[in-house]
Batch of 2 targets.
Target 1
Amino acid sequence: EAGVTQSPTHLIKTRGQQATLRCSPISGHTSVYWYQQALGLGLQFLLWYDEGEERNRGNFPPRFSGRQFPNYSSELNVNALELEDSALYLCASSLEIGTGNQPQHFGDGTRLSIL
Amino acid sequence: QKEVEQNSGPLSVPEGAIASLNCTYSDRGSQSFFWYRQYSGKSPELIMFIYSNGDKEDGRFTAQLNKASQYVSLLIRDSQPSDSATYLCAVSITSYGKLTFGQGTILTVHP
């Protein structure tokens, strides 16, 4: 069974540009989560999508946004990139959370570097 | 007070010993508790989850949960050098979806 897949693996941008990160969940998983892992800050929750809807959002500015498609894949968009956005962006997926607490499984991440 | 705190590391144990990793959380409404292992440069890998008070065993790993004390731990028996990694404790409340992570404990198992 394929795990969570993310693309691209690495992304290099300059300040002010926009970045798009992509995620495909494990087959059968309907919930997708995005996390940021920056040096020294640990894993921080960004967004949760389920059935195409944004269900929860972490303490990040509005220039971090995303969406979930009908096939449950997801995009994370970061506008007006700043140097501090340099981090590993991790996508996770889980079974439908409405049926109870479900473990989240992570992809390999996209490393975003801002020059 | 941090939402999720893990015992400060790094933790170093000899091969074959028991490694004990601890975690406390502040939100009494927390419902689910997870342990992830993260090797350097890699993504977190789920190794254990526990929802109810008590112990849960899976191979060499045992997770322990005490909701009254807001405490969760992970024991690794017969530690191997391949267990050397950062161990992340995470908690969640179902309706929020998100995982809240501790800062991680670096474990080194030396031969």
Target 2
Amino acid sequence: KQEVTQIPAALSVPEGENLVLNCSFTDSAIYNLQWFRQDPGKGLTSLLLIQSSQREQTSGRLNASLDKSSGRSTLYIAASQPGDSATYLCAVYSGGGADGLTFGKGTHLIIQP
Amino acid sequence: DAGVIQSPRHEVTEMGQEVTLRCKPISGHNSLFWYRQTMMRGLELLIYFNNNVPIDDSGMPEDRFSAKMPNASFSTLKIQPSEPRDSAVYFCASSLLGREQFFGPGTRLTVL
């Protein structure tokens, strides 16, 4: 059974710092990996999707990498801003059909002004 | 596109009552998923449909939970009878052919 772990569980940094969020998964046979953002009391916003054949994806100040063989992904946030404060969730999709996503517990990020 | 639509956004009910949650997926998507989010367990898959057919309901916690997808644009998740431990946020998501999943805003359910 696939398990996803996110480290750290919580992170607080001053505005302007670059930071890295980590995600690991136990079964490397994945189809793709998604990073989401969740604001308090809100739904999930998809940030980046990495297919299993890809090494990284970039969107603005966000960069996600994938090392499928070692079961790891990182989300890099450049020049952090207070508006980046949220919970970041990593999820893997393992099925070739229409299986659901397996989620980590998330990293709760606070950017101090 | 309006994205995935869920209703109601909030539901407060008493133990023993029937609860029905509704979802409209993104037009053209052929896969639909129901997830539940709690503080203790995080986000968990309950059931998913492929082309309106339930594929795997092993995540459904008990027989009190049931889900249907009568057509490509509508799905329901029903809890009968509801219990306080069912209190959670229920999300619906849709995708096309196993690609990126898009989530609705969720239904926050409180069972008293």
